Amino acid sequence: MTLSMPAVLLTSALLLGQGTSPPTGRIGAPQKDAGPDTTTATYGDWILKCQPAAGKPGQRTCEVLQSIVIQGQTGPIAQLAFGRMAPGEALYLTAVLPTNITLPSVVRLSIDEKDAQGADLPWTRCLQTGCYATLPMTDAMLARWRAQDGPGRLLFKSGAGQDTVLPMSFRGLARALDALGKD
After folding, report:
1. Which SS3 state, helix, strand or coil, does residue 15 take?
2. What is the rounded radius of gyration, in angstroms, for the C-alpha atoms of the chain?
3. Is the CB of residue 84 less than 8 Å from the CB of residue 91?
4. Phi/psi of residue 179, each to 5°?
5. How far is CA 121 from the centre of its chain?
6. Of 52-66, 72-86, 123-137, which range is least confident?
7. What angle is formed at CA 57 by the lines to CA 56 and CA 60, rounded to 5 degrees?
8. How far apart are CA 125 and CA 130, in angstroms?
9. Strand partners, 68
10. Residue scoring higher pLDDT (59 or 48)
11. What is the pTM of this model?
12. What is the pLDDT of residues 21-47, one digit of tens each?
């Protein structure tokens, strides 16, 4: 089943180095403002970004995101974002990764390599700008991740079938999700 991209603002221009380049070697590096009505707030390694909703005057869409930048590269290799398709609907987690992936497979978000309770995000689509994996969040997943404040990992299979692990961070996620709930 193909899910529509949640109302997260993961636009092709921002992803995978085609937009503003965050500082090298940082996780959760801030993105440049997309316009005068766009607001951002940083919570640890996560950013709450809100901007006007397309075609809905007076409404805003917000997401909590983290860019993953590998040292020596100018743009993010991956992004994670929490957002909703519409106000009051379920919260989704979306991962955007490079197009060099193996199908069928999943993206696994976990606390560490021994984490048996990590989440598997199924791929929903691949575009020229990246491949998207999306998962609706459960209360149990959110509670577990909110309790974390250290490193985590994102695992996926490269096009050559090799396990690829990218570092991510849970630092600030609970506060960022609290702020998202207020918008």
Report:
1. helix
2. 15
3. yes
4. -65, -35
5. 11
6. 52-66
7. 70
8. 9
9. 27, 78
10. 48
11. 0.79
12. 332 333 444 444 455 689 999 999 999
For residue 143, being part of any structural domain is answered with yes
pLDDT of residue 45: 97
For residues 6-21, give the mean pLDDT.
Answer: 34
Q: State the chain's mean pLDDT as an integer.
A: 83
Domain of 32 in residue numbering reads as 15-182
9, part of any domain: no
Q: How much is the pLDDT for 103?
A: 92
Q: Is pLDDT of 52 > 70?
A: yes
* Site of tokens 């709930």: 181
Half-sphere exposure of 48 (CA within 13 A, CB side): 18
Beta bridge partners of 64: 48, 82
CB 170 within 8 A of CB 149: yes
4 is a domain residue: no
Instruction: Kindly list the distances between the CA atom of residue 83 and the CA atoms of 17, 50, 61, 99, 168, in Å, as whole numbers in the listed order.
Output: 21, 11, 8, 22, 18
Look at residue 71 and tell me whether its pLDDT is greater than 80: yes
For the chain, what is the domain count?
A: 1
Whole-number Å distance between alpha carbons of 1 and 58: 33
Q: How far apart are CA 97 and CA 113, in angstroms?
A: 20
**How far apart are alpha carbons 109 and 101 in whole angstroms?**
16
Give the integer Cα–Cα distance in Å for 50 and 65: 11
Within 10 Å of residue 63's Cβ, how many Cβ atoms? 24
Residue 6 belongs to a domain: no
Write down the pLDDT at residue 34: 54
